[in-house]
Automatic annotation (TrEMBL):
One Pfam family of this chain: Sacchrp_dh_C
Protein name: Saccharopine dehydrogenase-like C-terminal domain-containing protein
UniProt xrefs under SUPFAM superfamilies: Glyceraldehyde-3-phosphate dehydrogenase-like, C-terminal domain
Saccharopine dehydrogenase-like C-terminal domain sequence ranges: 130-372
Gene3D superfamilies to which the protein is assigned, alphabetical: Dihydrodipicolinate Reductase, domain 2, NAD(P)-binding Rossmann-like Domain
InterPro entries (alphabetical): Sacchrp_dh-like_C
């Protein structure tokens, strides 16, 4: 017996999610809502080629108006999945609640997640299910449940190749594999951390540290969920922090944006920056030309002095040369599909709002990654 999934959004990230649901998540049927003709066409062409006979499991709709989709029983889905930009997630949450269908999304925007938490319902609402927040949070909590009380997470999707000044937009050393609105969101605001068993906040980009023998740099960003910090506190974690990995030089340039008045809550200024980034051809990721990688490290310590132990997980994922999915698209899609699959199997679907680290098994995520990663 397979499962019925509904996916909202078929941009590059949504296309990767649809592919993974069919290949790894026992999908009998995947109904995809995508209002854009162009996005539907591009996703159709790619998935039809990749999935071959299994593409018959995918059905497209361009509206959520049930009067215009009489063949779709919106109550019949095991899980609804949002791959839309975070600005759409509250409305899509309300749509899922209307049909009493478990819902999950990629999250990454704490204010929207807080509004979702206030929705009164007995329907599962599960935001923050991507890479980070998502996989990284579930595995951080997994370490905490094993007794690690000093945990740090380092995560980033970055382009591969020559990173000399000029190749990636005059030193930015980056290519956009997702909506620049999400990038601006995570580079703004405050970042929750744990120091001596207490919740603290620091500003995004407030410090820069070297990573991997100085080959990369990390800075704190606000995309990591404050929800996970509270869960870690409840589990007795004394120290926790999260940072995003980039090529050297990236953060100093971005801090210049902040000094110029961007990334500081000015919606008009940030909207202008999103437009500039989105239109910059040097930042565009072309899967036919470019290759990226994702670095994810979750590490922890437990015990003291001579009894101190270290543990954790370290992943390196590369763009797939066969499917042409970027590393970031793959890891982000795996985050939400593994959670959706877990919910569909009724392993532990909550009956209200919950971020995934509260109920998804770390072993389930590790097993899922092992299935997907090259041996």
């Amino acid at each position: 017996m397979g499962y019925r999934y509904c996916v909202f959004g078929a941009g590059r990230q949504g296309t990767a999610v649809i592919y993974d649901l069919v290949k790894f998540c026992e999908a009998d049927w995947v109904v995809v809502y995508e209002p854009s003709d162009r996005s539907r066409r591009l996703a159709h062409e790619k998935l039809n080629s990749l999935l071959e006979d299994d593409y018959d499991k995918v059905l497209w709709v361009s509206t959520l108006d049930d009067r215009r989709t009489p063949k779709i029983d919106w109550k019949s889905f095991d899980v609804m999945i949002s791959c839309a930009p975070w600005k759409e997630n509250l409305g899509l949450t309300e749509f899922a609640v209307r049909w009493n269908t478990p819902f999950c999304d990629l999250g990454g925007h704490p204010e929207t997640v807080a509004r979702q938490e206030n929705v009164i319902t007995d329907t599962a609402i599960v935001p923050d299910c991507g890479l980070s927040p998502g996989i990284s949070n579930i595995l951080a909590v997994h370490l905490a449940k094993l007794g690690y009380d000093n945990i740090q997470v380092r995560c980033g999707g970055i382009p591969m190749g020559n990173t000399s000044v000029g190749e990636f937009n005059q030193g930015l050393c980056y290519r956009l594999t997702f909506d620049p609105t999400g990038l601006i969101s995570e580079y703004s605001g405050r970042v929750p951390i744990i120091i001596s068993g207490e919740l603290k906040y620091i500003e995004s980009l407030s410090t820069i540290e070297l990573y991997k023998d100085g080959r990369y740099e990390c800075a704190p960003t606000s995309n990591n969920s404050p929800q996970v910090v509270q869960t870690l506190l409840d589990l007795g974690v004394k120290y926790y922090n999260y940072m995003t990995i980039r090529h050297k030089g990236h953060w100093n340039l971005v801090k210049g944006w902040k000094a110029a008045g961007f990334l500081s809550g000015n919606k008009k200024a940030d909207a202008y920056l999103v437009e500039v980034l989105g239109e910059n051809p040097l930042l565009k990721y072309d899967p036919e030309k470019h290759v990226d990688k994702v670095l994810l490290n979750i590490s922890g310590t437990r015990g003291e002095n001579s009894l101190k132990q270290t543990g954790g997980f370290d992943f390196l994922v590369l763009a797939d040369p066969e499917t042409k999915f970027s590393a970031m698209e793959q890891m982000t899609s795996w985050g939400i599909t593994m959670v959706a699959h877990y919910m569909a199997t009724r392993n532990g679907t909550p009956n209200k709002f919950a971020t995934p680290e509260r109920f998804v098994s770390g072993d389930w995520i590790l097993e899922g990654l092992n299935k997907r990663l090259p041996s």
